[in-house]
Amino acid sequence: MLSWMFFFRLLQIPKFVSALTYNISTCYYIITEEFHHEGDVVVGAFFPLHTFYTEKKMPHKTVPYQYLDNRIQYNFKNYKYILALQFAIEEINRNPNLLPNTSLGFDFYNVRFTEKYTLDNAFIWLTALVNRKYFPNYNCKKRNFTAALTGTSWITSAQIGTLLQLFKFPQITFGPYDPLLSDHGQYPSLYQMAPKDTSLSLAIVSLIAHFRWSWVGLILPDDHKGNKIVSDFREEMERKGICLAFVKMIPATWTSHFAKFWEHMDETNVTIVYGDVDSLEGVIRNIEQRLLTQNVWIMNIEHHVIDRADYFMLDTFHGSLIFKHSYRENFEFTKFIKTVNPKKYPEDIYLPKLWHLFFKCSFADINCNVLDNCQTNASLDVFPRHIFDVAMNEESSSIYNGVYAVAHSLHEMRLQELQMQPYENGKGIVFFPWQLNRFLKDTEVKDKRCLDWKQTIDTEYDILNLWNLPKGLGLKVKIGSFSANAPQGQQLSLSEQMIQWPEIFSEIPQSVCSESCEPGFRKVTLEGKAICCYKCTPCGDNEISNETDVYQCVKCPEGHFANTERNNCFQKSVIFLAYEDPLGMALASIALCLSSLTVFVIGIFVKHRDTPIVKANNRALSYILLLTLTFCFLCSLNFIGQPNTATCILQQTTFAVTFTMALATVLAKAITVVLAFKVSFPGKIVRWLMLSRGPNYIIPICTLIQLLICGIWMATSPPFIDEDAHTEYGQIIILCNKGSAVAFHSVLGYLCFLALGSYTMAFLSRNLPDTFNESKYLSFSMLVFFCVWVTFLPVYHSTKGKIMVAMEVFSILASSTALLAFIFGPKCYIILLRPENNSFTHIRKKTYSRRKNFPKI
Ligand SMILES: *[C@@H]1O[C@H](CO)[C@@H](O)[C@H](O)[C@H]1NC(C)=O
Ligand SMILES: *[C@@H]1O[C@H](CO)[C@@H](O)[C@H](O)[C@H]1NC(C)=O
Ligand SMILES: *[C@@H]1O[C@H](CO)[C@@H](O)[C@H](O)[C@H]1NC(C)=O
Ligand SMILES: *[C@@H]1O[C@H](CO)[C@@H](O)[C@H](O)[C@H]1NC(C)=O
Ligand SMILES: *[C@@H]1O[C@H](CO)[C@@H](O)[C@H](O)[C@H]1NC(C)=O
Ligand SMILES: *[C@@H]1O[C@H](CO)[C@@H](O)[C@H](O)[C@H]1NC(C)=O
């Protein structure tokens, strides 16, 4: 429904356009510079409502100006100023409690933007002269002047002010607040109705911060206000980390040919346009013509949506955000506007033109006063909003308030007069305008206490969104507000889903110099650039950033590691050779199997203890060796599972001791064989050894030496639990530190020394003629043992963590297996599979045949 209405209104636009361009009666161009609305006391109103294109051909001093062709231009939007004035005056005149028995009227004078004509009109008004002839210091018509209402630009007010201040004539300005005009030395009787823009920069910057825009442009006039606000903006923006990509100050002499102005305009997606309509009109028109549609414009002025329609559908300012002071809606004013027509106010010089233009009336008489053939429903409120907006705006509101201020002051003055001269009652007011100043000053003070006719609140802003697509729609929709007095964080309220952004943006626009740095990165500011321009570099090793846009990454705490995205620290997992680990499980089961196998071999030996093969090779030593080997296999289990200090110490000592015992037993066996057959040894020693059962001492002695080494090791620098957090990424390796590498290598060296010793002994006796001579097997097992541990060392030192431990376990198992397999394998084979070879008769036969071939030594 709504959209149909818009469409309907759009269809009407071309009619207005053609009306503007063709066949317009000459009455339309006949205009005077002033008109008067009678009253006992009058307010002077100086508004800019029409102007002329060229001044050369403009007739001088003749009223009315006639036949000026198209050179006259009406600014019908400002007609609302007259309406606001009219409305306020009627309201006051109707009010029996305010200025009873005195009617208020006004004298309207047009303001053109040249000092000469502005002052001309002001002067004419003051002297109230006839036929535009000046009589300075005379009030020819004896009109009861009260005050002058001037605006909209501060220049107009200042120009008129220089004249009025000579007489201390009260002047009320309704244009935007201007600090220059508040100089009471220069303008002692000038009162500004517009609220100060104290928090506008804060409001705009809050909005910008809300949308996380950090790279914005700023366009503003190069005047005292522009210079003030630019420093305000800089301050607020610095606080919020927003940067200005460019600041374009528009000099008074600005022209669109100023090519440098248009540079860098496309660097941002958001541009603030701050100023007043008068100083920015040229720029805004140019921006509009250039169709700079890739920008969200944030403005403090309600720029006039299309004065001239054209055939582009796109409007540069579609999607703009406009900040304006917040007003309570005045429905009475809207009602009043409906009642306005040329008949009601015959003195008004603009209404007939409006009616002629928009309602197709024709002028019926030569005086251009009577209208004919108008549409019956003609009234100002049927106009599309972009042509005429019936709602009160900031200026009309100021005018309304200004008139009330005057009325209240007059009322006060009258009351005071009556108190002093009670008999004068009923005679009407007689006063000089300057007498009003005292009361106006008071009302100015009272304003702050918010009189009911004063609706402005300085710190409240409405945020409007301009919907102008298709062009001509011209809706200004309130999408939020800013209230500086609200608590921090609640100042800005927005209905974001209502906002229509410029067509080019499919979502909420972005305006940043550099994309924000994701977690895992940090900002690095670029030298010589604004702080909003930076690059993102990844966090360093083991450092993270878990938020966007950080300047500094943080180190992960001890025992934690940074993930590859560098946005989170994780607890490192602990690794060691566990039983659950396939490798650990395999090694442990192998160790258990082998030790069971050894126990099994013990069983076989015990069962066949009386067979020659068992008896032949020192049964006791075999038992000891087998038992020791069982422990050798079992001691490898110490290495598997989570290490603690006890297992660390146990690992090394049990390993050292069991292996020493095993090797010592082998040595003892080898020596026994050598002793039994080698007679080349010095007889005495041999005999002593035989008698003293020397070989039996070898085991305890060798073991004691190893125990001594271990003792020294444990006493000086025992193995301890160590954590290696750096070798493997994201993991902590728990391992036993050997404590002393020298000790560890001494233990290994001692073992290898024993192995070599055994090997030598066994090698010496390898060819001795005995059926069950195991020397060959002993030497072979020692060789394998030696090889295993010699290869172990380099491999051990080149691996880390679990594998390193597994390597050690593997070496233990391999060397023990070598002993078991080479020394006991052949025997078990004979015992179990060749029992016929394991009988005394066979042995005797064999021994005999062999001995025949060998010389007796
Ligand atoms: C202009 O208006 C007059 C009547 O006011 C009419 O007769 C004439 O045809 C119009 N001219 C154009 C060009 O529309
Ligand atoms: C006003 O009345 C005319 C006919 O007199 C009609 O064509 C037009 O649509 C009406 N306008 C509005 C806004 O009602
Ligand atoms: C207004 O005028 C009437 C008569 O003209 C008079 O009776 C009345 O007192 C006056 N009121 C005031 C407030 O001056
Ligand atoms: C000025 O005010 C007096 C008293 O109110 C009144 O009699 C007189 O008519 C007024 N003058 C004009 C020009 O309205
Ligand atoms: C402006 O918006 C466009 C499209 O959304 C985007 O690609 C570009 O990066 C934005 N420019 C800036 C300065 O943010
Ligand atoms: C970032 O990390 C800090 C400490 O590591 C933590 O306190 C904070 O909650 C984290 N922030 C986010 C958004 O995860």
From TrEMBL:
Record's GO cellular component terms: plasma membrane
Q: Name one GO molecular function term.
A: G protein-coupled receptor activity
Query: What sections of the protein cross the membrane?
Result: 583-608, 620-641, 653-677, 697-715, 747-765, 777-797, 803-824
The record's keywords, sorted A to Z, are: Cell membrane, G-protein coupled receptor, Glycoprotein, Membrane, Receptor, Signal, Transducer, Transmembrane, Transmembrane helix
PROSITE patterns, sorted? G_PROTEIN_RECEP_F3_4
Where is the protein situated, by its record's location annotation? Cell membrane
Highest rank taxon of the organism: Eukaryota
Q: Which SUPFAM superfamilies match?
A: Growth factor receptor domain (SSF57184), Periplasmic binding protein-like I (SSF53822)
- One Pfam family for this entry, by name? 7tm_3
Q: Which InterPro entries match?
A: ANF_lig-bd_rcpt, GPCR_3, GPCR_3_9-Cys_dom, GPCR_3_9-Cys_sf, GPCR_3_C, GPCR_3_Ca_sens_rcpt-rel, GPCR_3_vmron_rcpt_2, Growth_fac_rcpt_cys_sf
Question: In this protein, which residues make up the domain named G-protein coupled receptors family 3 profile?
Answer: 583-847
Write the signal peptide boundaries: 1-19
Q: What is its main location?
A: membrane
Topology of the protein relative to the lipid bilayer:
Multi-pass membrane protein
Q: Which family does it belong to?
A: Belongs to the G-protein coupled receptor 3 family.
- What is this protein's name? Vomeronasal 2, receptor 102
Please name the source species: Mus musculus
